[in-house]
Amino acid sequence: MSQTDPIDATDEMNRTAEQTISTTDGETAEETRSEWVDYDTGGETKLAIKNLDVYYGDDHALKDVSMDIPEQSVTALIGPSGCGKSTFLRCLNRMNDRIRSASINGTVELDSEDIYQDGIDLVELRKRVGMVFQSPNPFPKSIRANVSYGPRKHGDIETGLLARLTGRADPESEEELVKRSLERAALWEEVSDRLEDNALGLSGGQQQRLCIARCLAVDPEIILMDEPASALDPIATSKIEDLIEDLAQDYTVVVVTHSMQQAARVSDQTAVFLTGGELVEYDNTEKIFEDPESQRVEDYISGKFG
Amino acid sequence: MAREDYRESLTELRDGVESMAKTVLTQLRRALTSLEDGDEMVAHEVIDTDGAVNERYLDLEGDCIQLLALQQPVASDLRFVAASFKILTDLERIGDLATNLARYALADASGAFSKIDIHRIGDEVHNQVQAAIDAYVADDTDACRTINTRDDEIDALCQRASEAVVRELIAREASAWGVEQLLDDVSRVLLTIRDLERIGDHAVNIAARTHYMVENDPELIY
């Protein structure tokens, strides 16, 4: 990707923070590769991650991670700061490509196709694998323009240049798509009479749901969420959590969260990463929170360290 | 270790359950003594102490609710709080049943049905409750299984005792006793046997919840 990408600077800062934390790792690792990660989800695998290693320079940020993420369900990734869970999430739509020093080994298969193979169309990939970030980041445009931005870019609505060029047979009208996306993100009723208002005038919780609507507008298959409710109050958080569960009926949702209660509330399966970039245990959420196999996982979720 | 206040609260809960169990065991021992000796003063003390046992129960139950609400325990901590919550109810019920026994002792001045070995059954169930609470404190699942098995023997003892009451009733000369007095004595001795058997069941419940708490295995619960 671009060497002059402005977001590189932020990523550099994040990386430094992760490095600092990971070097404070004082635990006595009982094993380097956990035996409690071969969880058979029972569902149809949407994403199959195999032996994924990520290095930021010399820092081994993610160590030999393998897991299957089933479709139409919520998978939570939890773990202390610097454990590699956000790095892992960003590997699932190749956002780490934007970090110059990052090197990635292993495979990530989306519907059995490796997204790291040569010739993959990154724009198409990120359309299929959408992302919602920790802080709501709507464009400083109208609510309508925020939602229609992606489809216009991708040529999915009739006003788009690409739609005309590619001659899509049945392009959806902008009006329908904006309404459908906002409804799906549980925001329509709150904003339907002010679609032309600037999105930055919405509350934080509304902005985050708008970002989810924006993500849904390009019709993704997978939605990655990086601490989507950590900047929101409890009521806005509840709405996002309800929405996550609802979205999982149609989409594959992968959510990074610092709130263990949130992971317990919304997810079907939970992956626990511990300091050092290691996936220690992956199982159905009930099992993780009632009777985890790994003592280190038990200690982490009980707050005995971390 | 992080969350020190939380860890301390968990320890306090375990100590609280153990100390309530001690009180309940003392209540049971004294109720059994009053049955054996007919000591009315001891029986009255047992009855009078039940209010304090109930208060202790409510306090500890409140501690469990507070832990759940404020600390959101998970994994083994969650199983510990959930098991303790249930075990407290069993202890409170044993306290009530000990009070029943003390009331029977007060009423039973006649010494009827002296051949029924109530005291042996009483000692057995007391031992069961003691063993169950020891298992809880020590996370001892082997002891839980033993307690579960031992309960069948206690049930059999109770069954034999009840049958002995009936046999003695048949053999007794009806004219020697007023019918009303006789019915009172029969019902009291049968209730005594039934309450002791129930205390044994509560001991099994404590063992079953302890087994779940340690192993995440509800096998012994039913």
From TrEMBL, chain B:
Family that this chain belongs to: Belongs to the PhoU family.
Main subcellular location of this protein, as a coarse class: cytoplasm
Presence of the UniProt keyword Cytoplasm in the record: yes
Originating organism: Natrialba aegyptia DSM 13077
Chain ranges of the PhoU domain: 18-104, 118-209
Name used for this protein in its record: Phosphate-specific transport system accessory protein PhoU
GO cellular component: cytoplasm
Family matches, as Pfam families: PhoU
Ranges in coiled-coil conformation: none
Location relative to the cell: Cytoplasm
